[in-house]
Each structure stands twice: as structure tokens, then as C-alpha cells.
Amino acid sequence: MRLTRAFLPTLKETPAEAQIVSHRLMLRAGLIRQTSAGIYAWLPAGLRVLRKVEQIVREEQDRAGAQEVLMPTIQPADLWQKSGRYDDYGKEMLRIKDRHEREMLFGPTNEEMITDIFRSYATSYRDLPRNLYHIQWKFRDEVRPRFGVMRGREFLMKDAYSFDLTKEGSEHSYRQMFLAYLRTFQRMGLKAVPMRADTGPIGGKLSHEFIILADTGESTVFYDSKFEGLDWGGTEVGNDDVPALKAFFEEVTAMYAATEEMHDEAAWSGVDAASRREGKGIEVGHIFHFGTKYSEPMGLSVAGPDGVAVAPQMGSYGIGVSRLVAALIEANHDENGIKWPDAVAPWKLSILNLKVGDAACDALCEKLHAAMPDDAIYDDRPDRAGVKFADADLMGFPWQAIIGPRGAAAGKVELKRRMTGEREEMSFEEALAKLTA
Ligand code: ATP
Ligand code: MG
Questions:
Q1: How far is the CA of 323 from the centre of ligand 1 (A)?
Q2: Is pTM, for the whole model, over 0.85?
Q3: What residue numbers bound the domain in which 352 lies?
Q4: Per-residue pLDDT for 232 more than 80?
């Protein structure tokens, strides 16, 4: 993509309304544009990041055995009247009427709808277990939408729902999602700590929030420093290996980590004083096990092996996909801008032509651009080098290929790694090999 053709509207000024760094950088780097309070349009670079985050989430859900569906954003009110949540949900729910005066709503979550869909097909224990998820826009009329997409009113969420015959089975489903979440965040280069959490209006007893440690987070958290050094990437636990997954879950959850609401002073005092950490964090995921809280009122039941009707045990599992984009920036930036991890960068490379019009520069830049057509932004603007450096740093591409007249004449490219600031001059071929490795 040529910068002279791209819609990548960066801002020089720091927007006054933005209080936290991710919000400022998302506006300055041209990732999003607010269209009304807490509601944003995603511009090309922002959308590319959002799609990559979404895809990592999807792959890890699939790997954990969940199956993707897509439910609508608009829901009929009667589903919520059946579960008893229609009145309880309060002002956060955006209620609408259609032309026939039927009560509808913009979905803030989908427990009712998925239970209703599943109920129409599941008749026997052989239809269990199942785990269904979708990645869809939600609307919650938050009292204080703020910090950009971190706490929006319209936001993209992945929500999964598990159905099991027994409590033991549903605990296994819960642990499958627990592991999938650790893997998901790790693939994005984020350290998310699973914390014991309150179940709130969703109900149930077992619940964990996945929290990224960051000073700008809204949650106060207490955790054992052991979490700081852990690596989940190589966790070789088989998805269907019930005892191994249980052992893994118990090992991780034995380490202390809790949100303020669930903080337990007695247990905390049992943690080695030197290992106690207290700080702020951003909630990027929340999982719940709630048994028959929805299956019973919604009339979902299946015939068990003995023919007796059973209400399935359920759980629900959310990830804030659009919030993650902001959280990734909170975790990866410096005073010059964003430092995208490779896995989620909008483009992998920015090609900086330091002298547009110089035949050698133009030719080498064109050649590199042609070699990476989908993954490079070519800064072919006739601007000063300083402007190009500043914009590339602001937008945070993981690699910059800096091509000036002297190097170009010798067929050389200078590669800069945004994450570390390292720079190295090398031949075109070496650079390309590095970039496409
Ligand atoms: P919070 O405590 O932050 O309001 P929640 O407990 O209401 O979150 P859930 O209902 O569990 O959140 O939603 C699942 C995930 O969706 C959350 O972990 C969070 O990452 C994301 N999320 C929730 N509300 C918002 C919002 N207003 N804007 C962006 N993401 C959100
Ligand atoms: Mg909320």
C-alpha cells in the first residue's frame, strides 16, 4: 500500500479529550474515529489490527473445540423476560421498538439467545457436550463510556457458551476455555493473569477474570509475583485430557491472584511477603460457570442416559476483542508511538523512501514493495525524512526499511526494529530474507 494512496489519517496534535495513552495513540495514529459517545468507526489500520486480534481469538477457540456461529445484534425482549433478566439489566440495555411495537433490544450479551437456539435442537445426552461461540458487536449503554474503545458503548466481543450433561463435564469445559484464554493472550504477546472474580449479574460460583497488568487499568488486583515469569505457550495439555487439564488448572489457580472484590486478606497473608504484588489491571476476558441458571428458566432439557430429563450445565466465556486493541497499545508503546507486536501489527513493514525522485531509491523501494505487497506500507510521499520517521514510529510497524540515496546506490537497506530500536544495514536480499522469515 502506497502512503500517497492510503487512508491513514495521522494527527500531529494530541487530542485533548483522550486521557490515557492508548486512546491518544489510537486517535493520533488514525486507527479509530469517534462517531458518538462511546461509539467508534474503525479506520483501515485499526480495522486490520482488530481483524488480526479477532483471528487469533477464533483460532484458539476452534483449537479448544468450540464451534463458531453468528447470532444477530438485535434480540427480541421476550427471551430476556423468560430468563428474568429483562428488568434486572437496567439502563445499560438499549431497548428499541420495531414498527409493530414489538419490544426488541441491541444485545449486550447472548446467554438467552444461545440457550433458546440450542434448546430447539438438543434432545438427548448425545447432543452434549457442545461449545458454541460468536464474535459480534455488543451494545451496553455504559454510564461513563471512556478511554476510547477500552470502555465503549458499542464493542466487539467473543462470547462462547458451553453445554454439558454433568457438573464434572462442565468444569472440564470451563478449564478448556481457561487454557484457551491463556494461549490466546500469550500469542498476542500479552501477560494476562487469571484472577478469581465475582460472578455479578451473570450468576454462578466459578469465575475468573483475565487481567493485563497496566497502571491505566480500572481494576485493582492482588497477585503472586510467580505469574510474572510464566509461559503458557508450551503448555502441552491435551484439550480432552480431563485429569491433565484439571491438574494444570489447579496448579495455576493455587497461586494467589484476585480482584479487589474477591480479595481475601487471610489467604493473602499466606503468600510470601516478597512475592506479593498489588497493582492496576485491564480486564480483557471473563469466564463463568453458572450451572442451570439459564437452562432451567429457558426450558432447555435433554433426556439423560436413563431417560430422565436433565437441564444442561452451562458456562459463558467472554473476550473483549476491541478492548484488546487498546490494551495491546497500553502494553506496547513509547513516547514516540505504538510498538505493535508482530502478531497483530496492521502492516509488518514500512518502507521509508528518504529521497523520492532519486532513481536508485525509487527502484529499490519499488522492488521491496513488490516483494511484500500485502504486508508493507510504502512511504512514497515527497516529504522530509523526519516526517517519515515520526509517522512510522507513531504507527508502530514492527519493521522499518530505511532507504536513502547512498545505501540505495550500493543496493543496501537499513532495517529498524521498532520494538527494540535496533538498526542494521544489509543487502536487499538479506533484508528481504529477514522480513519474510
Ligand atoms: P467490565 O467490568 O469491564 O464492565 P464486564 O464484567 O461487564 O466488564 P463481561 O460481561 O464479562 O464484562 O464481558 C466480557 C468482556 O468484554 C470483558 O472482559 C471486557 O474485556 C469486554 N467488555 C465489557 N464491557 C466493555 C465495554 N464497555 N467496552 C469494551 N469492552 C468491554
Ligand atoms: Mg461491564
A1: 8
A2: yes
A3: 347-436
A4: no
